[in-house]
Every structure is written in structure tokens, then in C-alpha cells.
Design brief:
This protein is an alpha+beta fold and 1088 residues long. The protein has 39 helices and 36 strands. Among the domains are: 115 residues, no CATH class; 139 residues, Rossmann fold, CATH 3.40.50; 228 residues, Calcium-transporting ATPase, cytoplasmic domain N; 200 residues, Up-down Bundle (Calcium-transporting ATPase, transmembrane domain). It is found in: Membrane.
């Protein structure tokens, strides 16, 4: 990131005017450009928290001044720069001044989107706008002419009210999703420290609210404290200081801190003399100098990056396709409406030509309104109103399936996005690896000098039951192995606890792994297995050793000697010193080795070289090795019992004595630990580092151009070209901004990016990615809230399973989208043919709305249960720009749609003009027959002489037209309209069977492969029967009951849709080779 910087010499007084409300003395204080504090003040800092960033002096851009690299300066320089003494701290007046400059030490809360804006955003969708316009027009027409088209009274308002209800529910769901989208920022605040111990005016103030801290404050940290701000370590109170900062930097181990300055260009992990806000002290205590507060801290920068990423969120690939479809639909509806009006303009607007010019215009408002209603009906017919509900239902069902596979989906659209994921940017710790340190090898001494034994250890977790030790002498451990177990169990401050179904470490993961190893090693021969110290988590062996070897003193680990020691009062009556640490360091302080039988021999050069060679081999396999040794306690501690009054206790208070105490050791063996790659990630295992082991790189592959640090990648000139390399890429020591930049570049290059992570440092990239995947067990709340999906088991294989589920869901969504769209094409064709032929309106808008929302809904939803293809994960990911509806599919459904239109209009005409059809008698109800010419010119009925019609029956009703025979084409069309609606419902049910497969025949994929679809068809037919045979509902929808013969007519007209599509599918299968040209996907995997 580029920041324009200036030095203090270039500051003019216009910059200072931003900081208003200061006293004269404070202004003078600020004007002292030589003041160490002022040199690092930027204009945005001067505004303080909540300052208006748009305020600028004289219209100039806000200036950002150089920041003081405290990590690269010694303690004295830091004190001078911040104008403070570590012994006295800041004065009260200085604190007041700096509060005015820097504001409170807390993260900003961005202004939320107003409710009105959120509501308006819900209508920023083409389909919704069309639907809204149709609802408004329907409402107006219902007010003007409530009884038009057979609708009476309140029934005229059913259609607009239902559409409005759909829009309201859609808006509520959208607003709810929006208001839940930014919880990541709130979660970030939760990890901030609440209180701090500060020195001011020479007095130590405990429990000061952390938000009151300012740069220059002197803060004391102890074990367990959460760091309240970014601070420079200026003094160690204990011999060592370790901080758990994995949530910010991604490091799996706690980091040792020092007071020594580091290089100025060091990255976050390299700033060993800095502690960062939100991290936790796990060992030791220290004194620190606050360097950055609030939004200027590293966690504040992450906060800003999350905000920035949230502003760049894009629609999912499916949403983009639906938007494109909506825009195309708008154009099509407009053209069809215009065409319908042009065809029917003669019915409501006529004129005579006089002297070659049109004269005597006649306009019928009633007929104009009628054809306006037809246009509204077209809009209702063309829009798949049920599509949003069906998509939401399908995605919700998909989330349930994924939840069963341990993938918890937080945002529904991300289910579909998974299906077209082309790149997975995976954080190493916890996703590709278990994030649970595990011992994988034990090296013990042999039966004679110059010999070693090794044992491979199975298991990749903190579960003591996970795996065994190969060729282990169960219950027959020799003295050498017993000593290794004893040291691993007692020289250890960690524990392992069972939380629900997971075993988790409490303390250092390496030490927890040693305790798990002790449990796998088992009890020594003849031991009392009913240890009183055995806990409920199964660490019985560790409890036994702790009971046998009573710990009386601890020699803390430090980075100089790289070891830890404990003094124990053994049950054997001896006082022993047990030591574990870096193998080279422990071996260097050893003079003897313990053999298999427990005897000791002098450590000769050959044995030393043999141990070091074995160490080298294990290190090359990415194993972290720890050595074990012991000795009798020095003579000064022969009577030591842990009492502070004992003369030897004074030696333990000075860590510089530890090396001499831990001398003349007897070396017993060592172990190799690793953060194991998950066995599900890849089945290839080599002796290379983790990326080679999981298969990202080959064992002997040259990866010099494909493995970069985050800083090195930022210096690459053509970054996109680097990311386009085939195969895997590795980015180590990547800071949040590096990860975010990698994701951004991949997205710009057309990739659909899934990002996995668990820490605060991953949150900005998780937010920016097309789909962010957080870890459920080890992940921070910040990462979870910024993500779209959470892995309940922290397992990479869960992502793979979720991708497969996403692909299956997308295929099924395509099936029901095609089904619903083809049904809507049929409805449009029906209305268009009605208008083109000039016959009475076959179906009214409320009937079409019923079909689109209710009747079509169950089959469309059931298509979401289609079984996935067996080879679904062997196919390359689809491109995000792949067409939802191809030209061939569109042609197929235009053909089907035209048949639907012909069938629905045809059955309407058949009822009026035929007494029988295909041997089916239609005259039983006694209705009168008319000619097609009469039906097409029904509006001229009043001019026909001697036109009469007979009464007809429908269920228990009788329709008579003695007073006005022309009502036969208005009120009397109710039976023909019912037939049209029933044909439409039946055809769409049979058409849902066609949607089981895009090109597969019903012979190879019969209906019972998806029993839910058969059930859904039964439900839809049942709902249709309800509105037909319940009198009140039949009146609302303007329909009447049908006889058995009339149902036979419906089936005869509807079933051919299956045969037509079978022929089209056959043509599709025969021509698929011509329509699809093979393409080679660029399969990439990026690993962080």
C-alpha cells in the first residue's frame, strides 16, 4: 500500500487548525516541531476518533506523516521520541494533550446504512421492479374496474395484494441479511483488552480502562493479560516473555519477545520487541511503551481492511445471471406488450379517412383498460414470482446437507458460489494441517553405546486414542523409555481437555503433544494403574508420573539456553533434575547417555555425531525436535523442598544461573513433532515440508519461483502473471494486506476465490473473497463473522465435500430455473396467442399468480433433491460466466412454451367450438357451440341477429344467458377458462419430469429417482383440486369444477409435452459434440 509521507519540517499551521479546542499552552506544545511526539502525528491522527475525515484544511488532501519505527530503535531512543520516562510514565497534563490528539484507544464504529436506504436497496433488482410495476397497475385497475374479467369485489384485489406481500417478505429477508453482515467489526472489538496497569506521574495505576491509553503510556503486562495496544517492550520482569499472537499473525506457536531492536523493514512476525493489541501473554511479565492506539494499531488496520472489503462485496455468480435474465426479460416483456397493443389497437381505437386523412377518432376506455389488463397479465405471466422463494428454499436445504458434513453456511448465496470455485486460498495452520502438534517419531538409546532405536507414532490430534506407536513394547517399557515418558509428562505445563467431541490443548501445543505421547506410551510394568491424579480426560499415565515424581521447582524456558527444567522429589528417594529443550543445546550440556537397561555411559563423539545426524534427518522432514535429559540435582539442592527460606532458593530467582544448574546432564533421547497435514488433504506423503507432503508441490520439484514471502510477492512487477502459474503457489509470512491483495488480484483475473482462515489476520481476505471459509474450532470470532461458511471440524476435506454439494445444488437450481422459466414462456405464449387471435381472455392474472407461486413451487423445490452426478468432483469447475440458459436450452423451452400456449388456448377454443375431441364427449354440460369466426369476433356479439345460447351446468351451478346472450363470452367463459388453467397446471407437472435431467431421457432417469418430485406433483395437483372443488376458492379464482370427461381432455392435451421434450433431448444428445467445444480448465490451488 502506498502512503504519501512528509517530514515534520513541512508541516504548516493549517494542519494544526484541525485540532480545535486546545488551550494556548497545548497549542504551543503542538507547535514545537522538535517535540518527539509531534513528529509522528498525521492529520488523520489530529482529528482523533470520530473526527471528520472529510475535513481538510484549505481543501488540501489529508497528509500522512512518517511513523516512528519503535521496533528498530533501542529503549532510550523510544523514551526520547515519546517524551516519557519508563520509571515515571506520562504526566496528567501530557495525557490530556495526547487524548486531544489521538482520541480514545478503541476501534471506530462505522456509520450504519439507514433503514430507508436498506429498504430502497431491496428494490434495486430488475425482476422486483417489474413485479412492483405490475402490482401498482393491478391495484389501480382493481380500483377502476373491480368486476372486470369475472372478478367481483374484494377478489379484484387478490392479485396486487399477493404481489405486494411477496415484495414485503423479500425486503424483510434482505434487510435482515444486511443488518447481520457486519458483525465481524463488532467481534473485533470483543478481543480488545478492557483494562491495563499503567504508570503515570510515577504512580502505578491498576485497572485503568484500556480505552484511556495514549501513545507514550508505560504499561505493565503479566501472564494472562490481553495486550491493550501496540507497544514496544522496554523491559522484561521475568526471564522470558511469550505472547500468543496466532490470531493476528497466523503463527501456531507462542512467540518469545525481547527488548532488542530489530530491522526497520521487519514484518509483523519479525517484530520481536513489539506486542500487539488483542494478543495474549502466555508466559512471563514485562514493561511496555504504548506506540499506537485505536485505529493505528495492527488490529485497527485489520478493522479498516474489513470495512474496505465489505464495500467491495460483489453479487454471486447466480445473482449476476438472474440479474442479466431480469434485464433480458424486461426487454422481452416490453416488446411483447407493445406487440399485443399493436395487434389489438383496432378494438379500442378506430377512425375514418376523410380526404386521405384520419378523422372521427373513436376511443373505448373500457376496452383500452381491458387490453391494459392483458399487458399486466403478460408481466405476471413472464415473471417467475416463485423463483426467489424456491431458490431460497433450495439453498436452505443445501445448508442443512452441508451442516451434516460439518460445513455451517452463514450466508445462503455462498452455497451456490461454492459450485464454481476455481481457486482455494488456504491458510496453512489448521486447514491443511490439524493445528494440533503431534509427536510422529521417538528416538531412544540402544542397548550399547553408539546405537539408537526409533519408533514411529501414529495420530494427528490431541486425542490420546488417535493412533498407536509402531512396534511398541506395551507394558514392557525399558528404563530408557520410562525416563523419556517421565520427563515428557512432568517437565510440562500443558494439559489436554475434552470439549464436546474434540480434544483441545490448554497451554503450549508442543507440550500438550508430549502429554498425548505419554498416554500412548502407556504404563510402565508393575505400575499402579489406578492413579489418584488421573483426570476425566484420559491422561492417566501423566497423572501417574506426576504422582511418582513430585515437582518442587521450575527452571523456566528462555531463548538463550533453549530449555526448560524441573526439579522433582522422586518416589525412589532421589531428587532429580528433568530437562527438555532444543536437542543441540541439551546435548551440548550432556556428558553421559542412558542406555536401554538404565545404565549410563560417557557420551563419546561417535554417539554425539550419530544423534546429531538423526536430528538432521528428522529436521529435513519438517519435524520440530525436542531432546530429553536428566541429572541428580546439584549438591546445593540436595535438601531443597521448594521452600523460599532454603538457601539454594536464591539461585532460582536469577535465570542466568539456570544454564549452570542444567549441566552435566545424562541424555536419554528425543522426539520429532509436527503440525500434521490432514490425511484427507492429500494421500501422498513424503519426507518434505508440509506443502510437499500434502501434494501442493512434488518431492523433487524446483519451487523457487512459486514460493514467496508476502513481502517478496508485493515486490513482484507482474503479480497477476505470477498468480496465473499452473499448479500450486505458496505465500509464507503473509500479512493481512498481502492476503487481501492476493484475493483481489485473483478476482480481477476472473477467478472465483474461496479463502480459508482462522485468525484476525485472515478476516479482511475472508471478507473480500467470493466465499470466506472460517475454522469453527480454532477460528476467532472475527474470522467467523467475516466469513460466509464455518467449518465445524476445521477440516480441509469438509471444504471439498462442500464444493461438491455446491456443484450439486447449482445443477439442481439450473433444473428448476429452466423448469420455471419454460413454464412462464408457456404462459406468455398463451396470453399472446389469446390477444393475437382476438378470442376472450383465457386466464386472468390471479390464476397465473396462483400457478407461478403455489402450483409450480413444490415441483421446483423438489427438483432441488435431484441426486448428484457420481462424477461431479471429477469435472472441472464451471466458469462464472457460463450461461445459465444456453441457446439450445432456450430453443427447447421456446418450443415447449409454444406448445403450452397452443394447448391452453386450444382447449379454450375446443370447448366453445367442438362437442367432442379425440372421442371424448364434451356436450354433457349442455353448453352451446359457436363457430371459430364468432369466437374470434366475440366483441361484435351485440350486432348479431338471433344469437342465442343454452344454459350449461358446472358442478352444482347453472349458467343462464337469456337476458344477455353476449355474456356467454364473458361470464360464460368460466368453464373454458377452467380447462385452460387445468391444462396449464397439468402440462407444468409433466414438464417437471422433463427437468429431471438436462439431456437424459426419462427411460434412463425415471421419475422415481427423485421420489420427492412425485410427492410434489401430487401436492400441486391436490392444491389445484382444492381451488376447483371448494366453492369459496373457486369463486375467488373465477373457476368451476370439471367432470371426468373434461379431465380426460386435460390429460389428452397435456401429456404430449413429455414426448416433445424427449425428441428434443434426443436431438440434444446427438448434437452435443457440435455444441460444446472442449476447453482445458486452468486448475489452480493457492496456498498461504
Amino acid at each position: 500500500m502506498i502512503r504519501s509521507e512528509i517530514h515534520s519540517e513541512s508541516i504548516d499551521t493549517t494542519s494544526i487548525h484541525i485540532c480545535k479546542g486546545l488551550s494556548v499552552e497545548e497549542e504551543k506544545y503542538l507547535e514545537r516541531s522538535s517535540d518527539p511526539l509531534f513528529n509522528s502525528i498525521s492529520v488523520t491522527d489530529l482529528m482523533g476518533k470520530g473526527g471528520d475525515e472529510d475535513k481538510q484544511s484549505n481543501g488540501s488532501e489529508p497528509l500522512k506523516l512518517d511513523t516512528f519505527p519503535a521496533w528498530a530503535k533501542d529503549v532510550g531512543e523510544c523514551e526520547e521520541r515519546f517524551g516519557v520516562s519508563v520509571e515515571r510514565g506520562l504526566s496528567s497534563s501530557e495525557v490530556l494533550t495526547r487524548h486531544q490528539i489521538y482520541g480514545l484507544n478503541e476501534l471506530e464504529k462505522p456509520e450504519g446504512t439507514s433503514l430507508l436506504k436498506l429498504i430502497l436497496e431491496q428494490f434495486n433488482d430488475t425482476l422486483v421492479r417489474i413485479l412492483l410495476a405490475a402490482a401498482v397497475i393491478s391495484f389501480v385497475l382493481a380500483l377502476v374496474d373491480g368486476d372486470e374479467g369475472g372478478e367481483m369485489g374484494i377478489t379484484a384485489f387478490v392479485e396486487p395484494l399477493v404481489i405486494f406481500l411477496i415484495l414485503i417478505v423479500n425486503a424483510i429477508v434482505g434487510i435482515w441479511q444486511e443488518t447481520n453482515a457486519e458483525k465481524a467489526l463488532e467481534a473485533l472489538k470483543e478481543i480488545q483488552s478492557q483494562q491495563a496497569t499503567v504508570t503515570r506521574d510515577g504512580v502505578k495505576v491498576s485497572s485503568l480502562p484500556a480505552k484511556e491509553l495514549v501513545p507514550g503510556d508505560v504499561v505493565e503486562l503479566r501472564v494472562g493479560d490481553k495486550v491493550p495496544a501496540d507497544m514496544r517492550v522496554v523491559g522484561l520482569v521475568s526471564s522470558t516473555l511469550r505472547v500468543e499472537q496466532g490470531s493476528l499473525t497466523g503463527e501456531s506457536e507462542a512467540v518469545s519477545k525481547t527488548t532488542k531492536a530489530v530491522e526497520e523493514n521487519a514484518d509483523i512476525q519479525g517484530k520481536k520487541c513489539m506486542v500487539f493489541a488483542g494478543t495474549t501473554v502466555v508466559n512471563g511479565s514485562c514493561v511496555c511503551l504504548v506506540t499506537h492506539t485505536g485505529m493505528s494499531t495492527e488490529i485497527g488496520r485489520v478493522h479498516s481492511q474489513i470495512q474496505e472489503a465489505a464495500q467491495h462485496e460483489e453479487d454471486t455468480p447466480l445473482k449476476k445471471k438472474l440479474n442479466e435474465f431480469g434485464e433480458a426479460l424486461t426487454l422481452i416483456i416490453g416488446l411483447i406488450c407493445a406487440l399485443v397493443w399493436l395487434i389489438n389497437v383496432k378494438y379500442f381505437l378506430s377512425w375514418e379517412y376523410v380526404d386521405g386523412w384520419p378523422r372521427n377518432f373513436k376511443f373505448s376506455f373500457e376496452k383500452c383498460t381491458y387490453y391494459f389488463e392483458i399487458a399486466v397479465a403478460l408481466a405476471v405471466a413472464a415473471i417467475p414470482e416463485g423463483l426467489p422463494a424456491v431458490i431460497t428454499t433450495c439453498l436452505a436445504l443445501g445448508t442443512r446437507k452441508m451442516a451434516q458434513k460439518n460445513a455451517l453456511v452463514r450466508k445462503l448465496p455462498s452455497v451456490e458460489t461454492l459450485g464454481c470455485t476455481t481457486v482455494i486460498c488456504s491458510d496453512k495452520t489448521g486447514t491443511l494441517t490439524t493445528n494440533q502438534m503431534a509427536v510422529s517419531k521417538i528416538v531412544a538409546m540402544g542397548s550399547r553405546i553408539g546405537t539408537l532405536r526409533s519408533f514411529n507414532v501414529e495420530g494427528t490430534s490431541f486425542d490420546p486414542r488417535d493412533g498407536e506407536i509402531d512396534d511398541w513394547p506395551v507394558g514392557r517399557m525399558d528404563k530408557n523409555l520410562q525416563m523419556i515418558a517421565k520427563i515428557a509428562a512432568v517437565c510440562n505445563d500443558a494439559s489436554v481437555e475434552q470439549s464436546e467431541n474434540q480434544f483441545v490443548a490448554r497451554g503450549m501445543p508442543t507440550e500438550a503433544a508430549l502429554k498425548v505421547l505419554v498416554e500412548k506410551m502407556g504404563f510402565p510394568e508393575g505400575a499402579n494403574k489406578a492413579s489418584s491424579l488421573a483426570d476425566g480426560n484420559g491422561l492417566r499415565c501423566c497423572g501417574l508420573w506426576s504422582e511418582l515424581e513430585h515437582r518442587i521447582a521450575t527452571l523456566e524456558f528462555d531463548r538463550d539456553r533453549k530449555s526448560m527444567g524441573v526439579m522433582v522429589d522422586s518416589s525412589s528417594g532421589r531428587k532429580l533434575l528433568l530437562v527438555k529443550g532444543a536437542v543441540e543445546n541439551v546435548l551440548e550440556r550432556s556428558t553421559h547417555i542412558q542406555l536401554l537397561d538404565g545404565s549410563t555411559q560417557e557420551l563419546d563423539q561417535y554417539s554425539r555425531d550419530l544423534i546429531l545426524q538423526s536430528l538432521h534427518d528428522m529436521s529435513m522432514s519438517a519435524l520440530r525436535c525436542l531432546g530429553f535429559a536428566y541429572s541428580d540435582v546439584p549438591s546445593d539442592f540436595a535438601t531443597y523442598d521448594g521452600s523460599e527460606d532454603h538457601p539454594a532458593h536464591q539461585q532460582l530467582l536469577n535465570p542466568s544461573n539456570y544454564s549452570s544448574i542444567e549441566s552435566n546432564l545424562t541424555f536419554v533421547g528425543f522426539v520429532g513433532l509436527r503440525d500434521p497435514p490432514r490425511k484427507e488433504v492429500h494421500n501422498k506423503s513424503t519426507a518434505e515440508a508440509i506443502c510437499r507432503e500434502i501434494g501442493v508441490f512434488e518431492a523433487d520439484e524446483d519451487i523457487s519461483s512459486r514460493s514467496l514471502t508476502g513481502k517478496e510477492f508485493m515486490d513482484v512487477k507482474d503479480q497477476k502473471n505470477h498468480l496465473r502459474q499452473s499448479g500450486g503457489l505458496l505465500f509464507s509470512r503473509a500479512e493481512p494486506k498481502h492476503k487481501q491483495e492476493i484475493v483481489r488480484l485473483l478476482k480481477e483475473d476472473g477467478e472465483v476465490v474461496a479463502m480459508t482462515g482462522d485468525g484476525v489476520n485472515d478476516a479482511p481476505a475472508l471478507k473480500l473473497a467470493d466465499i470466506g471459509v472460517a475454522m469453527g474450532i480454532s477460528g476467532t470470532e472475527v474470522a467467523k463473522e467475516a466469513s460466509d461458511m464455518v467449518l465445524a471440524d476445521d477440516n480441509f476435506s469438509t471444504i471439498v465435500a462442500a464444493v461438491g454439494e455446491g456443484r450439486s445444488i447449482y445443477n439442481n437450481m439450473k433444473a428448476f430455473i429452466r423448469y420455471m422459466i419454460s413454464s412462464n414462456i408457456g404462459e406468455v405464449a398463451s396470453i399472446f396467442l389469446t390477444a393475437a387471435l382476438g378470442i376472450p381472455e383465457g386466464m386472468i392474472p390471479v390464476q397465473l399468480l396462483w400457478v407461478n407461486l403455489v402450483t409450480d413451487g413444490p415441483p421446483a423445490t423438489a427438483l432441488g433433491f435431484n441426486p448428484p452426478d457420481k462424477d461431479i468432483m471429477k469435472k472441472p469447475p464451471r466458469r462464472s460466466d457460463d450461461s445459465l440458459i444456453t441457446a439450445w436450452i432456450l430453443f427447447r423451452y421456446l418450443v415447449i412454451g409454444m406448445y403450452v400456449g397452443v394447448a391452453t388456448v386450444g382447449v379454450f377454443i375446443i370447448w366453445y367450438t367442438h362437442s367432442s375431441f379425440m372421442g371424448i364427449d364434451l356436450s354433457q354440460d349442455g353448453h352451446s357451440l359457436v363457430s371459430y369466426s364468432q369466437l374470434a369476433h366475440w366483441d361484435q356479439c351485440s350486432s348479431w341477429e338471433g344469437f342465442k345460447v343454452s344454459p350449461f351446468t358446472a358442478g352444482s351451478q347453472t349458467f343462464s344467458f337469456e337476458s344477455n346472450p353476449c355474456e356467454y363470452f364473458h361470464q360464460g367463459k368460466i368453464k373454458a377458462s377452467t380447462l385452460s388453467l387445468s391444462v396449464l397446471v397439468a402440462i407444468e407437472m409433466f414438464n417437471s419430469l422433463n427437468a429431471l435431467s438436462e439431456d437424459g431421457s426419462l427411460v434412463t432417469m425415471p421419475p422415481w429417482v427423485n421420489p420427492w418430485l412425485l410427492l410434489a406433483m401430487a401436492v400441486s395437483f391436490g392444491l389445484h383440486f382444492v381451488i376447483l372443488y371448494v366453492p369459496f376458492l373457486a369463486q375467488v379464482f373465477g373457476i368451476v369444477p370439471l367432470s371426468l370427461n373434461e379431465w380426460l381432455l386435460v390429460l389428452a392435451v397435456s401429456l404430449p409435452v413429455i414426448l416433445i421434450d424427449e425428441v428434443l433431448k434426443f436431438v440434444g444428445r446427438c448434437t452435443s459434440g457440435y455444441r460444446y467445444s472442449p476447453r482445458t480448465p486452468s486448475e489452480k490451488k493457492k496456498t498461504e
